[in-house]
Each structure stands twice: as C-alpha cells, then as structure tokens.
Amino acid sequence: DAGITQSPRHKVTETGTPVTLRCHQTENHRYMYWYRQDPGHGLRLIHYSYGVKDTDKGEVSDGYSVSRSKTEDFLLTLESATSSQTSVYFCAISERSSSVLLEFFGPGTRLTVL
Amino acid sequence: DQQVKQNSPSLSVQEGRISILNCDYTNSMFDYFLWYKKYPAEGPTFLISISSIKDKNEDGRFTVFLNKSAKHLSLHIVPSQPGDSAVYFCAAHSNTGNQFYFGTGTSLTVIP
Fold first, then answer.
1. DSSP label of B9
2. 3-state SS record for B34-53
3. Average of pLDDT values for B106-112?
4. If we measure between CA atoms, which residue out of B65, B11, B81, B87 comes closest to residue A41?
5. Chain A nearest CA to B7, separation (Å)
6. pLDDT per position as a tens digit, A59-85
7. How far apart are CA A85 and CA A78, in angstroms?
C-alpha cells in the first residue's frame, strides 16, 4: 500500500468553514496527488506535487489549495468549504520501477459539507 | 472534455467465465495506461499497467491489451471469481506534468 495514510477519515463540517486534509507517506515518494471521487465522474485530479514546495493545479483545482513543506506530507485545504465540495478525497503517490509505472492510493477521506 | 472513457457503467459475468472491461482514450501522447479495482469505502487498488510501446501485458488472471491505432485498451480477467466484483477504473498517464486521467469506472459483478 506504499505506506499512505490520510487524516481524518471522515469529517462533517459547515459551509464557509476552513478544512484541511492530510496525506502522509512513509516511503519518500516524490510525486503526490489529491483526487476527488464523485458519482458519474470517476476520479478527478485536484492538485499534485512533484517535490517539496513544488505543486501544480489539476483538473478541478478551484476552491482548493495545497502545501508540501516536507516530502512525507501533502496537505489539501478548502479555505471556505461549500456543499459542492462534499466528496470522497483520495491521496496518491506514483513511482516508476523498471519501466513500469505504478500509482498507489490512500484509504480516502469522506467529507460532508452541510 | 473526458480524455479517458469507460462507456459501460456495469457488467455482469458468470463465475469462471471471462470478464472484459473496455476503455477508450483521446490523447495519443499518453505513455502508460493503468487499471485499478475499487471496493466500497476503500481506496483504488492498482492492478496492472502497460506502457504505450507494448500491446499486451499479463499478470496472473489479468491481461491488459492496448490497441494504439484505435486508442482502446481492455482488461481481461480469466477466470472471473466472485471476489473480483468491484468497480474497475482505467487511467492514462501523461508525461506532461506527470498527471493521471481516469475513466468513470465500470462496476463488475461476478455471479457465483
């Protein structure tokens, strides 16, 4: 499972409040990703990181920011949560080994914005 | 615009038979393609990947076929088992930005 943990695993919050989700990995992977999964949309990339303090936007980045101050931690922040951000959020890492590309996911965080 | 498409939302197969899951893509610059299995309340689990320079990759009961001219890939599971019942996602990797693009998933049910 590439040593990926996410916290919290579940969160209920109110519209307008800030929320931070944490992704932690133990194997020094360079690339980390945040996705959201919604019915009918599969997994959509929010932001990704290619190193400490190096991040870039994905397909659905509006309303989200990220930070990566250490290799092992990638934080996703909703500055002012909205009901449209109710979703399941997954963190992932990728690694390349012997011309094989792999991507591993964390267990997910279920966020409900009331 | 969806760059990776899985046009079948669901598939039912008898135990022991072959399951074939399909995926289409639009960007000829994708360099890797991946398949994942996902159970409810869990993260996706990596199954198998294939480089764009190959047309087949096999791992146990799972085989992925890539047809670049048709921009189509498929995952074959033989023989299918009830434990294979899950949602299957295909994904494509772009070397530009090292991003992955996912299909919307196919729910496979293997009937005992």
1. S
2. EEEEECCCCCCEEEEEEECC
3. 97
4. B87
5. 11
6. 899 999 999 999 999 999 999 999 999
7. 8
